[in-house]
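quick one, 588 residues, struct below
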Amino acid sequence: MLLSLNNAIKFKAKAPFLLRSLSFATTKINLVFRNVSTPSKAANLTLTLTRRATAFTPSLFPCCGAAMATGSCFQVKEHIELTEIEKKIFDRLLNTLRHFNLQTQLRVAGGWVRDKLLGKECYDIDIALDNMLGSEFVDKVQEYLSSTGEVAQGLTVIPSNPEQSKHLETARMRLFGLWIDFVNLRCEDYSENSRIPTMKFGTAEEDAYRRDLTINSLFYNINTNLVEDFTKRGIEDLKFGSIVTPLPPKATFLDDPLRVLRAIRFGARFDFTLDEELKKAAACDDVKTALAAKISRERIGTEIDLIISGNQPVKAIDHICDLTLFWVVFDLPPKIEPAVSEECYRLSAAYLDATWKIIQLIGSSSFDGEQRRLCLYSALFLPLCSATYKDQKAKKIPAVNYIFRDSLKRKASDAETVINIHKSLEKFLSLIPSLLLNEDNQLTEVDWGKEFVDVPVTSKLRVLTGLLLKEIKHFWRVALLISTLLYPTDIDCTQDIIDKNFQLDKRKDLFVSVESAIVKLGLNKVWDLKPLVNGKDIMNVLQLKVGGPLVREWQQKVVMWQLAHSSGTAEECLDWMRETHSKRLKME
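---
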C-alpha cells in the first residue's frame, strides 16, 4: 500500500532542524523566509547566508550530503523582485480579497518562486488557494474587475482527470497579458486497492510535500510578501543544486510517474544533480511500468519536447538512458524490421551529443529554434531511420513515424520533416564529394527517381543539389549537418560515435565547406524559384487540350532546365521545349 500523505508528513516532521557552521570567509546576508513546521505555528525566520565568491551558502538548514559532496553552489536571490506587471496582477488579486472580505491566503507555487530566487524571469504563474476552488476565486476576480470597469479575459476551467494523473481542477484567466492558473491546496490519500487518490483541501504544508521536487515546493505568499519553505529543504536544494523529492521518491513517482521526466528535465535545465535514491526509484520496474501504463502519451511527448527544446538536451537524454527509460519513453511498434538492438539507444544518445556539439561550434545563427529542435530529433532517431513496420493494410511505415505519432503524440509535420531529412541523407552524401571539389565528375550513382538525359553534364551538380534542396526546403542545413555524421560512407564511424570520438572540428569544417559551396551555386532558398512557364504554356507547346501526367512530367523538366540555366529567360525555355518535343516526336 502506498504511504498516505498524512503519515508521510508526520514522519518527515520528526526530522531535526539542524544547525551547522562553516569555516569559509563569509559576508553575512539576511534573508527573511517563513519556515513553517505546522500551519498553526507560523513564524518569520531570518536566515543568515554566507557568501563565498559569488555563491550563497545557507548556515541554517538540514545538511544535504549529496549536494555537499558535489561542491556545487548556486546563487540564490536575497528576495523576490516583482516586475511592474506582477505587481499589478497581485494588487488586483489582493483587492479582490478586500472587496469580498475573503480570508483566503494567495500563494504563488512552484516554478515561478524557484526561477525568481535564481534570478530568472518566469511568466508561468500558478496561484494556490487555501480555502476555495480555483474556479470559485476566478469568478470573484471577474466580478471585482467588472465593478471597476475592467474586463477579465480568457476565463476557462480545465477539469481534473485522475486516470491520467491530472488530479486537480485548474481555472485560468488572463491578466495584463499573462495567463494565471488557480488551483486549491490539496491533500491526497490512497486506498489500499486504488492508484487514484481521494482529493480534499489540504494545508500549504501538505501541498508542499505532495509536490514533485523540493525546489518546486516553495511558495511565495502574496498576502505577506514572504517565501515559504514548508519542506525545510527547498532553499538548500536550490542553493546546492540538488534534485530531490519531498517524500520518498518511489511513492512520489508512483503517485504521478511523469515526475520522473520532470526531475530529469529540471536536473538538466539547471545543471543540478539527481539524488541517488531518486535515481534508484526512477529506474525500478514498478515506476517504469507505471510511466508506460498510467501517463498519457501526450504528456510524455510534451515533456520530451521541452527536453529537446531546452538548454541541455544531451544531459537529459543521457539521464533517460542511464535510468533505462529510453524504450519506455520512445516506445517502438511491434514487429519492427530490421530488428533493433537493445543497445541502440546508446548510439542514439551519441548522435544527439555529436549533433548538439556541432551546432554549438557552427553557431546558433545557422539554425532557428524549429530547425534546431528537429535537427536534434533527426540525430536521436538516426539509428532507426531504416526501420519499418507494417500497418493494418500491410503497408510499410517508418518506425520514426510511429514514435512521433503514437509514442509521443506529436504533430504529423514533425514526423514528416524528420523522415524527409533521413530520406535525403543518401542523396546528400552522394553530392558531398562533388560539392567539396565543385566537380560534376565526382557524382556517385544514386537513384533520384528522375531522368536527367536533357541536363548538361556541366550543370548536373547544380541541378541535383537544387532538386534536393527543393525537397527539404528550410531544413537542408539540418540534413547537411546529419550527413556530416555519416561521412565518408566507406568508413564505419559507429564505434567512434559511441565512444564519443566525434572529430568535431573536422565535421564542422565539412559542414561549413559544403554549405559555402551550395550558397556559391546560388541555391539558397531555391525552393522559392518561380517557374518560367506555366501549365498552359506547356500545353500549348505540346498541343494538348487537357492537362495530365505529361504536363506534370514537363513541369519537372522545366525546373531542371531552370536550375541548369540560372540566367535563362522564359522565351529561351519555350524554345528549348519546342526543340526537345520536336526531337522526341521524330524519334517516335
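The longest strand covers residues 44-52.
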